[in-house]
Write the structure tokens for this entry.
Amino acid sequence: MKKEEMVTLLRSVSCDENTVTAMTNAYELGFDYGSKAYVFLTEAIEEAKRICEQLDSVGSEPSTADFWKAMKKLQELE
């Protein structure tokens, strides 16, 4: 749900403006933390991909097949 949709919904059920403001602030705080976590996780995944590609290139064990399966599932979710 987008922030604007949330505000519209809250106002449509006659929520107090203080509640709307509090929920908007909470939404923005959550969005900020979520975007920082996304950047961190994306960097970690890219590093893991680089390491798995190196392992695959030398035929090292353990197999990286599970990692690549997980990567495929992530790409399907995007």
Observations:
- The radius of gyration is 21 Å.
- The chain is about 85% helix and 0% strand.
- The longest helix spans residues 17-58.
- Helices lie at 3-12, 17-58, 65-77.
